[in-house]
UniProtKB/TrEMBL annotation:
GO terms for molecular function: phosphatidate cytidylyltransferase activity. This is Phosphatidate cytidylyltransferase. GO terms for biological process: CDP-diacylglycerol biosynthetic process; peptidoglycan-based cell wall biogenesis. GO terms for cellular component: plasma membrane. It is an enzyme of class 2 (transferase). The keyword Ribosomal protein does not apply. It catalyses: a 1,2-diacyl-sn-glycero-3-phosphate + CTP + H(+) = a CDP-1,2-diacyl-sn-glycerol + diphosphate. The lineage of its organism: Bacteria, Pseudomonadati, Pseudomonadota, Gammaproteobacteria, Methylococcales. It comes from Methylocaldum marinum. The chain crosses the membrane at residues 12-31, 51-79, 107-130, 142-166, 178-203, 224-243, 249-269. Pathway: Phospholipid metabolism; CDP-diacylglycerol biosynthesis; CDP-diacylglycerol from sn-glycerol 3-phosphate: step 3/3. Its EC number is 2.7.7.41. Belongs to the CDS family.
Amino acid sequence: MNDWWSNSLHAGIAGLLGLLTAASFVVAGMVRTHSERSYTELRLRVRTWWIILAVFIAAVAFEPIVGVVVFALVSFIAFKEFLTLVPTRRADYRVLLWAYLSIPVQYYWVANAWYGMFIIFIPVYVFLFLPMRMVMIGETNGFLRAAGTLHWGLMTTVFSLSHIAYLLALPDRNESTVLVTGATLAFYLIVLTQLNDVAQYIWGKSLGKRKIVPKVSPGKTVEGFLGGVATTTMLAWAMAPWFTPLSPWEAILAGLIIGVAGFVGDVVVSAVKRDLGVKDSGNTLPGHGGILDRLDSLTFTAPLFFHFVYYLHY
């Protein structure tokens, strides 16, 4: 039993289960105490978090190949959701098939830890191939918008998110007191990114006065942003010895990267939704919206955190 708890990943997962259990009891108490109020959205949010946590545990707690498959499915759902949001040309249906086929290929490089192909496949080969295939169809009306939209979708939902899966392929490192694995790094990244969203929301609701990007996301404030980044940075510093090979100063920098990049990812996807005239990216996750609404911050934090750690320690 002691060996089980000495594994930082196991202890971290147990902590998340305890936190979500406590949140479920709090919400149940609110519903019982204030039966005249509607807590439907809050109950849906908590219920969906249980599903998200189950998928997350499946991705990091078993063999790395299981996590790679899980993240490949997440990328597929996210890319499909993106294509339901953006207008596509009828002539490009066959091109979309090639875009979908790039997903298993990208994750094949991840599963085989083939870094050279992983890092250039979508930014170079797919970027060049899809416009060529579109030209062969012969439709020039709206060509630039269609090509740019399709590649942006692949870069955010497949290339960026595949960096989380590649963390699982990194070799284990025996640090002074703990074993750092790809799963502990993925745990560190995902938990901090999600907590950063929560912290920015709480700080914004508590102290927020000055809007930071009112035309894009009216609810975001300077106080929420700064409070969220400070909270995430402190958590990154505190968690680093148990989940990463980062030194204290490196952990502080990692926290700043995740805090700032998470905010940027959030507002960038908000800008996309505002441009398309939709509130949520979908309804896949009841209470949260679509899967892109939940992954927006990770599309920016995942590649930046991966290359930060990879450059310093691998």
